[in-house]
Backbone:
């Protein structure tokens, strides 16, 4: 039985290596599916982790763990960065007011949107628009 331990350990390492190399290469992994779902539904202000976890068929806690392990970022941080990124695009490409953009990217509260935008970019939405419009 003691002789089986090194063989079992080696087999386990091979299985983990196989999983790691094949998991990230497939586009139908739970995290890839979650990212695609988020790209389509980010503007839903009621979107929550449990919605995405249910979509990919995982429990909330398991999905949260797997998502963070695979992306090195929490679900909430990922969603915030996605929304702020879309807001940046709209600030550059449109003349919409920042409160309208807040609603467009999934924030119910324009003040909270401005707070998060500044936290992520170091600028308020109006400062960002002004800077990007002067550099064109």
Residues:
């Amino acid at each position: 039985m003691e002789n089986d331990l090194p063989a079992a350990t080696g087999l386990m390492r091979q299985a983990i290596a196989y999983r790691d190399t094949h998991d990230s290469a497939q586009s139908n992994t739970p995290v890839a599916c979650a990212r695609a779902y988020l790209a389509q539904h980010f503007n839903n202000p009621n979107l929550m982790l449990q919605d995405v976890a249910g979509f990919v068929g995982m429990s909330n806690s398991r999905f949260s763990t797997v998502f963070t392990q695979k992306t090195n970022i929490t679900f909430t941080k990922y969603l915030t960065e996605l929304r702020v990124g879309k807001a940046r695009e709209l600030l550059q490409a449109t003349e919409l007011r920042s409160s309208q953009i807040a609603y467009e990217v999934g924030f119910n509260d324009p003040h909270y949107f401005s707070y998060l935008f500044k936290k992520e970019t170091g600028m308020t939405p109006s400062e960002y628009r002004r800077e990007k419009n002067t550099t064109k």
Observations:
- Residues 4-72 form one domain.
- The CA atoms of residues 99 and 111 lie 8 Å apart.
- The mean pLDDT is 88.
